[in-house]
Design goal:
The model has no long low-confidence stretch (mean pLDDT 94). The chain is α/β, with parallel strands linked by helices and 299 residues long. It contains 9 helices and 13 strands. Strands 7-8-9-10-11-12-13 form a 7-stranded mixed beta sheet. A hairpin with a 4-residue loop joins strand 7 and strand 8.
Length: 299
């Protein structure tokens, strides 16, 4: 698994943000590193690759990873498909940039499928550009992806009923899911939850069985953006459990048995983006890692 991007929406630095972190990374301060918006590339055989979410940085992300480069045929590509965790623009708008690829499989829940055919009509817009195949994911039925020899099992876990801001759809439906990626050969699995608004008993059980956790690291504190005057919405209102404080991600996951615990989807305001910061050192002492673009993990 390769981290193609580890930042939250807008990337780091965010183009319209003048917070201290964004100012420092623009100055090329050695304590900070630019990050693209969150996305992974996963493969069971290192030949057929799948993106997990496709954001606006997708072209740059593909070019940053040689395993995804086209060839040897003139229009041959190792990219076999895209797995979507939700219908947010940050995770789906990159599908428009992949319109030249005609043999991709797109995986997601039924709510994502309906949205990409209606409110954000990606598939109707692209029907004359490509002939993609849709594969529905359901929490009731794990999905097998890959070849007969090398298989990755994708298990979806309901995360949130919060719909994207661009749609007024029913909040009673599951809009966001986490993924449990099973390597059938090794018997190990990775839990990928780029957004977490709470850790329900179902989510907790999923995280406890995973060998590697890669979870929501968007905000350090509840009022991070409010205190800097960027917005009136706090972390939980935006659908993210903060890392620090009582009841935060670090406290809840510190005792979980996973071999590695990695935070991803990190907002530009988060102090853990600074190497050597108090918050980052606190996490490292608790056994957490902070994801970075180019990070590779074998499950």
């Amino acid at each position: 698994m390769r981290v193609l991007g580890s930042a939250a929406g807008g990337g780091f630095p965010q183009w319209n943000c003048a917070c201290e972190n964004c100012r420092e990374v623009r100055k090329e301060n050695d304590a900070f590193h630019p990050l693209l918006q969150s996305s992974l590339a996963v493969s069971a055989n290192e030949k057929d690759w799948y993106l997990i979410n496709a954001g606006p940085d997708v072209h740059q992300q593909i070019e940053s990873f040689p395993a995804l480069h086209a060839g040897p045929g003139i229009r041959e590509t190792p990219l076999a498909g895209v797995i979507l965790t939700d219908a947010e623009l940050d995770h789906t708008i990159g599908l428009l940039s992949l319109r030249e690829g005609s043999c991709l499989s797109i995986y997601g829940t039924e709510m994502v499928r309906k949205t990409l055919h209606s409110t954000f009509p990606v598939f109707p817009m692209l029907e004359n550009y490509c002939s993609w195949e849709w594969e529905s994911l359901s929490p009731e039925f794990p999905h097998r992806i890959g070849t007969a020899e090398e298989t990755m099992i994708v298990e979806t876990v309901p995360v949130s009923r919060k719909p994207p801001l661009y749609t007024k759809s029913n909040k009673d439906d599951i809009w966001e899911v986490g993924l449990i990626l099973h390597n059938e050969k090794s018997g190990k699995c990775l839990a990928y939850f780029p957004t977490l608004e709470e850790i329900t008993p179902v989510i907790e059980a999923s995280l406890k069985k995973a060998d590697i956790l890669m979870v929501d690291g968007t905000f350090w504190s509840e009022d991070e953006l409010v205190e800097m005057g960027a917005t009136m919405r706090d972390a939980r209102n935006m659908g993210h459990l903060p890392i620090g404080g009582g009841g935060g991600t670090a406290e809840k996951l510190a005792t979980f048995p996973a071999e590695r615990k990695i935070l991803i989807h990190i907002n530009n305001s988060n102090p853990i983006l600074k190497m050597g910061s108090r918050e980052r050192i606190t996490l490292e002492r608790l056994g957490f890692e902070v994801a970075f673009d180019g990070m590779e993990v074998e499950v």
